[in-house]
What does this fold into?
Amino acid sequence: MRRRRLFPALGYPSLWTPLALGSSLLAWWDAERSDLITQAGGLVSSWRDVVGGYDAVQAVGGSQPIWSATSFNGRPGITGDGTDDELTLAPVPAAIPIGANACEMWAVVSQAALVADATLRMAFSYGNTTATARNIQRVVDTGNNRARGNSGDGASARSSLNTAVDFSTRHVVRLRIDLTAFQCDVDQQAGAVSATASNTASSRLRFFASAAATAANFWNGGVNTGLLVDPTQMSSSDDDNLYAYLNRRL
Amino acid sequence: MANKLIVWPVGGEAGRNAYADEADAQWKIITGNPSAIWTYRREDGLGRPYCAYLGPPQTYGGVVVEAPPSCEALRGDGEVVDLVPPPDEEE
It folds into this structure.
């Protein structure tokens, strides 16, 4: 009888997940974890994160985004209508860096707004108004869809525009914020560096809209993943592993 | 698939609230949830009262929600739109 090798030989790659980041992983909302999503009739009322159980919620039916097992290029995703859908966690949990403290916001998104739609739209935000928030945004710049990161300095919004990538359909976005600067990378292509000391409030975290008290700038498209990491403990291999993991979601 | 909004002229809060009350009531029936709420009640950047429109293309359980006749009867001078200008950012 032929002997089966149930456990492959040394060198077989283990399945890396963001949980391997340990304490560097601050929060992780995963649309592929249907066990952490509360929905009725496909409408999402709660999206709980993997790490701390942080619960982004929406009780109002007309503002509930839609979950589907296949909406994100055949994978699970939550889709906002670009009109009034959003999920809110308030206040920002204590483990999430605010003020000027370093943090990276990662998101796997699909962006459905056409260039003819000039509306500023936000997929993932935390803080309060744009002067005191960190946002992953979509803008139209010289006739192209572009990703833009915002990290307000307390007095005004500040931006990092990424002109390297046509920000239509699906992408991995990484908003990298440290004590004195930030930049918005898309699919590992760097955005402009903004020399800014952030001043982020702790009011709320939101998917599919701004972080202001009254939600606005609604996202038209899907979100498969929203993730927050502490970059101060991460290695370059951690970055590569995380990109590789998230790229497989596209 | 986008929701629509329904917006009334400045000062039209009574019409907005009447529509929203009935939409909330109908949403409870549609969802079978007696605690369900359909819509926020807000003002847009022009000071006009508005709320979410209960009707296509909204879906529930994958089925398009048809506008309840009792809600349609309360639209008055409310206009169904895709977007409204956002209000100024507030703290």
The interface with chain B takes residues 40-43, 59-63, 66, 81-85, 119, 128-130, 210, 212-214, 216-217, 220 of chain A (CB under 8 Å). The mean pLDDT of chain A is 94. The helical segments of chain A are 236-247. The CA atoms of residues 63 and 85 of chain A lie 4 Å apart.
